[in-house]
Amino acid sequence: MATETKQLLLEQGMAMLLRHGYHDLGITAVLEATGIPKGSFYHHFKSKEDFGLQAIDRYMEEVHAGLDYSLGDKSLAPLQRVRRFFELSEEKYRTQGYLGCLLGGLGQELSGVSEVFRQKVEQCFFEIAQRIAISLEEAIERGDLAENTDPQKLAELLVNCWEGAALRTRLRRDPAPLREMLDFYFRIASA
């Protein structure tokens, strides 16, 4: 029961953080949305900051599951696996009203005011790029990318471009920036 309560709070919190951001998120609103008493919140989280950081951890569980699913599909070529991860991410964004990436939103909102959040979000982006770089290394070995390609830098560039496109998608509530970015990136990367 305690684990279910914590998961419910985190799931609701992630959705509210995506919609409203950290500063506009009230713990009372999360409690009202879940019907969970205040004492239960503080049983699982030391503070609002702790809640936000654990929401990021929960979000990253989903991201890693998506990476496992996409990058682990050996029936696809490495570049197709990488692209598939981002296409699935775009589909998730669609179901959420094109509000973009929780990491990107929190990073933009908090990186200038909270060193803890800045480091946490940066570490998450690094982990994503690192996992993608493994598939890009495989693409180099297969001859799908130039031999002199730096897979880590190319993966970081992809994450950076994706996050910029996710912001534009959020502003427009339209997936076109994500799709255009992916088309451009993979056309140039494999040229």
Q: What is the structure about, briefly put?
A:
This protein has helices at 2-20, 27-34, 38-44, 48-71, 78-95, 102-110, 115-142, 151-172, 176-189.
Percent in helix: over 70%
Largest sheet: none
Strand content bin: under 5%
The arrangement of helices and strands along the chain is HHHHHHHHH
Mean pLDDT: 95
How many helices does DSSP assign?
A: 9
Shape: elongated
Sheet/helix structural class: mainly alpha
Contiguous uncertain segments of 5+ residues: none
Terminal Cα span? 53 Å
- Count the E strands: 0
User: What is the rounded Rg?
Assistant: 18 Å
Jot down its keywords.
191 residues, 78% helix
Describe the protein's architecture and organization.
- The chain is mainly alpha-helical.
- It has 9 helices and no strands.
- α1 crosses α2, α4 crosses α5 and α5 runs antiparallel to α7.
- The protein starts with a helix and ends with a helix.
- The relative contact order is 0.11.
- The mean pLDDT is 95.
